């Protein structure tokens, strides 16, 4: 566990054992967070460029560690946010996608609370959008969704709080059928900024332009309009909102190559609503954090897949009226997020 981090605000309270306020009050609710598990029943390997080690088989054991810790909490988490890339794309090449997904879902099943699954690029390396919509990863089924086939929805775990799950591959060349309008729009967009024949190679001539790669994506206007509407409702109800996505949307919360294509449009919407207090994402395995000028905490979670077997990468978030306290494990630092 790392040093306790705070935002740019001056804060009076730090997290103690049991994560209580000074007056001993319990949190209103808690939830678990984990990102980029990328499980595969394979020996350790490396990323596409051969520069970063990945621990495919042990990632399932680290998920098991997280489940055991969450189950042992005095105030057990009400739900878990799984921030995308739950199994690795290499499973597809080995005909093991369904088997790997079943192993991970079985492990999640050992812990009772609901799991809200965000879709990342590795979900689309393994499955088509229609397959995902009919799978256990469709955690938004039956809810208020952003549109047909868009994995974006919202839920309220407690009075005064709302969580919004976004679909960062709604506009992409890996998350859409080639004959679809959204695929054509995505292809034109990426080719306008990336001249490489291999679209997973970043253009590289400006830092944030590097985001125009095939393993990233963006948000359709339909989804952006839906998000704006959900946040308007939250503003009116004086709710506090946490928005989650696989891909980060603030350039200072991640490496530029892991940024959503149209991050600026999302930021514009988030910053126009006083209800938004936090944006959580995965995708960048090194993690990141930034408190923007609107007071929104942009938290990027470190990835399980690049976490050595003798460490961990998950967190438990304790939610209070005026703050969220993240208690990290292993590579993930403790953070105090005031709002």
What kind of sheet is the major sheet? 7 strands, mixed
- The secondary-structure element order is EEEEHEHHEHHEEHHEHEEEEEE
Whole-angstrom Rg: 19 Å
Counted by DSSP, the helix tally is 8
Distance between the termini: 24 Å
Strand order of the biggest β-sheet: 1-15-14-13-2-5-6
Query: Could you tell me the strand content as a percent range?
Result: 15-25%
**Amount of helix:** 10-25%
- Give the low-confidence spans: 1-22
Q: What is the average of the pLDDT values?
A: 91
Assign an overall shape: globular
Q: Let me know the number of strands.
A: 15
Structural class of the helices, strands and pairings?
alpha/beta
Cofactor: Mg(2+)
InterPro entries: Calcineurin-like_PHP, Metallo-depent_PP-like, MPP_ADPRM
EC number: 3.6.1.13, 3.6.1.16, 3.6.1.53
Catalytic activity: ADP-D-ribose + H2O = D-ribose 5-phosphate + AMP + 2 H(+); CDP-choline + H2O = phosphocholine + CMP + 2 H(+); CDP-glycerol + H2O = sn-glycerol 3-phosphate + CMP + 2 H(+)
Please provide a written account of the structure.
24% of the residues lie in helices and 20% in strands. The protein has 339 residues and is α/β, with parallel strands linked by helices. Belongs to the ADPRibase-Mn family.
How do the helices and strands line up, and which of them pair or pack?
Elements: E1 5-6, E2 29-34, E3 45-46, E4 53-54, H1 58-72, E5 79-82, H2 90-93, H3 97-109, E6 114-117, H4 121-126, H5 129-133, E7 153-158, E8 161-165, H6 181-193, H7 221-237, E9 240-244, H8 263-271, E10 276-281, E11 288-291, E12 297-300, E13 313-319, E14 323-330, E15 335-338
Parallel strand pairs: 1-15, 2-5, 5-6, 8-9, 9-10, 10-12
Antiparallel strand pairs: 2-13, 3-4, 7-8, 11-12, 13-14, 14-15
């Amino acid at each position: 566990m790392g040093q306790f981090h705070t935002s740019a605000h001056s804060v009076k309270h730090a997290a103690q054992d049991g994560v209580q306020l000074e007056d001993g009050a319990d949190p209103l609710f808690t939830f678990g967070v984990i990102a980029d598990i990328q499980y595969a029943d394979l020996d350790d390997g490396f990323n596409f460029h051969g520069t970063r080690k990945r621990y495919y088989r042990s990632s399932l054991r680290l998920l098991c560690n997280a489940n055991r810790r969450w189950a042992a909490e005095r105030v057990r988490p009400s739900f878990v946010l799984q921030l995308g890339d739950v199994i690795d794309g290499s499973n597809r090449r080995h005909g093991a996608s369904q088997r790997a997904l079943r192993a991970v879902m079985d492990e999640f099943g050992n812990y009772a609370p609901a799991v809200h699954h965000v879709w990342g690029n590795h979900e689309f390396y393994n499955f088509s959008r229609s397959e995902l919509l009919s799978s256990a990863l469709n955690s938004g089924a039956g809810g208020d969704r952003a549109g047909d086939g868009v994995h974006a929805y919202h839920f309220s775990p407690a009075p005064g709080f709302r969580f919004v799950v976004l679909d960062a591959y709604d506009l992409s060349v890996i998350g859409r059928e080639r004959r679809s309008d959204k695929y054509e729009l995505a292809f034109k967009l990426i080719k306008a900024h990336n001249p490489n024949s291999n679209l997973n190679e970043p253009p590289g001539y400006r830092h944030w332009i590097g985001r125009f790669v095939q393993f990233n994506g963006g948000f359709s206007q339909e989804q952006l309009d839906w998000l704006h509407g959900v946040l308007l409702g939250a503003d009116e109800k004086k709710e506090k909102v946490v928005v989650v996505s696989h891909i980060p949307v603030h350039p200072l919360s991640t490496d530029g190559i892991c940024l959503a294509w149209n991050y600026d449009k999302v930021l514009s919407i988030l910053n126009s609503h006083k209800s938004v207090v936090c944006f959580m994402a995965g995708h960048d395995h090194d993690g990141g954090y930034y408190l923007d000028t609107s007071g929104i905490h942009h938290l990027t979670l470190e990835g399980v897949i690049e976490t050595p077997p003798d460490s961990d990468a998950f967190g438990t978030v304790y939610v209070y009226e005026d703050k969220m306290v993240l208690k990290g494990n292993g590579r993930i630092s403790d953070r105090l997020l005031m709002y």
